[in-house]
Known about the structure:
Blueprint: E1 12-15, H1 23-28, H2 35-43, E2 45-51, H3 60-68, H4 80-88, E3 98-104, E4 106-108, E5 113-115, H5 125-141, E6 145-148, E7 154-158, H6 170-173, H7 189-203, H8 206-213, E8 221-228, E9 242-243, H9 248-252, H10 256-268, H11 270-279, E10 285-289, E11 293-298, H12 304-312, H13 317-322
Parallel strand pairs: 1-9, 1-10
Antiparallel strand pairs: 2-11, 3-7, 3-8, 4-5, 6-7, 10-11
Amino acid sequence: MLPLARAADTPRLLIPFAGRLTAACRAALPALALPRLGDLLARLTLQDEDAQDDDTLSPPHERALARALGIQTADGCLPWAALEAQRAGLAGAHGQPWALVTLCHWQVGMSEVVLGDPASLGISAAESDALLACALPFFEEDGIALFTTGQPGLWLARSALFDGLDTASLDRAIGQPLASWLPMSDAARPLRRLQNEMQMLLYTTHVNDDRIARGQLPINSFWLSGTGRLPQPLPAQGPQPTVDLALRDAALQDDGEAWSKAWQALDAGPIADLLAHGERGEAVELTLCGDRAARRWIATPRSLLQRVRGRFGRQRTADVLEAL
């Protein structure tokens, strides 16, 4: 999972899934009232925009966070795993390629396979450790070293196989048919074989027997993401944005009502706080991200005429979010 940075003492806010292309979330936009967001945008100036296709492997919020950290790499090669390895003090974090390995459930249908949200599985630390012990020999046979993290069901992997390998973010693939998101290059062939082996292994474990007996979904595969090396030398990191994930679950489930309620809570909470900072003359920054684009607004000195135009000629918030 993406290791999202947080820095609560800086007035910089990054909101993933602020816009959503799915049917229910788009249908909720016209009735979505966000007065503080409107007031905040009227005070700020659009600084930059990153607009790409909605089928890029790295979603806009991950690209925006990478830019804030000074990391520039190819699509699908944002090195979140290597960054996490560096934070954990693991050997090889700076010179070798890494990947995130996320245990997950693939829902097999009549005509397609869909990836469920790993966060909904409720994987315990004991289950994660037991599955790691089973998986370790298979990964090591392919020259992949595995390491635990503080999050059950999420492992760090180190191997030359991940060098230059582009992979889709979980936030792109969850709830989607997997055919478009699995790595299909020749370089990924050993990993596809390993994934097949692990799927057969996972079906035989007592962990899944126990989960099924309790009425839980089995853990039947893993997802690779966050592949690549950290840039050398590492860029100097300034103040990082606070990343608020309040919209994520509702957006991935395309629950328009829950997404609207989460937006209203954001408007009354973090957005209102950022607006208060701006009204005190602080150099606030807001980044809104959707499926196709990330836009960043900053506070800049403006004339009285510009401020009046901003107040009375401002774009509707629904139009801003729909453009993401």
